[in-house]
Design brief:
26% of the residues lie in helices and 26% in strands. It has five helices and eight strands, in the order βαβαββααβββαβ. An eight-stranded mixed sheet has the order 3-4-5-2-6-7-1-8, covered by helices on one side. α1 crosses α2. The protein is globular. The two termini are 16 Å apart.
């Protein structure tokens, strides 16, 4: 993966994880994809909540584990958000059944939890965001962001140069 670019940040509360996500929103475009990974309770849904709020979405954002896909519309001129949870899927062929490819190629931002189960099915370009809990502090998280593909490299570069993100080169 010669096109990989990596940054990290430590967050110390659910609010700071949401704030980090919110700093990404000004740079998102239609068709951008974010793959979130991390153990249960790591903060993936909190990250999505921060994105959604900054997109103008006022609906309650919950993990779509039982639905596989939840769709949210923000402001009339804002980007829709599609939130996938692939945890319950076992086979890449199931992605066809849920309209995965049509959705991620659409007019929205797609966030995919448990996408690492189907890396070969992910789009050419995406942000890979891994959230890991600290062993020492309950609320501390290490967030590692990797850019896969050209569009993701552009996106991560502008996000990382935004002083509010406080991302650091890994």
């Amino acid at each position: 993966m010669g096109s990989s670019l990596t940054y990290t940040r430590k967050t110390t509360s659910p609010e700071s994880t949401k704030q980090l996500a919110a700093t990404l929103v000004p740079y998102l475009h239609e068709g951008d994809t974010i793959v979130l990974s991390g153990d249960l309770g790591a903060g993936k849904t909190q990250f999505v909540q921060g994105l959604a709020l900054a997109l103008g979405i006022r609906d309650a954002i919950v993990s779509p584990t039982f639905n596989i896909l939840l769709a949210y519309q923000g402001t009339p001129d804002g980007l829709p958000l599609y939130h996938f949870d692939l945890y319950r899927l076992d086979d890449p062929e199931q992605l066809e059944d849920i309209g995965f490819y049509e959705t991620i190629d659409g007019d929205s931002v797609s966030v995919i939890e448990w996408g690492e189960k189907f890396l070969d099915s992910m789009p050419y370009s995406y942000l890979d965001i891994a959230i890991a809990r600290s062993q020492d502090e309950d609320n501390d998280r290490k967030i590692t962001v990797r850019a896969i593909g050209d569009r993701a490299r552009q996106l991560l570069h502008v996000w990382a140069t935004d002083s509010k993100s406080r991302l650091m080169k890994a």
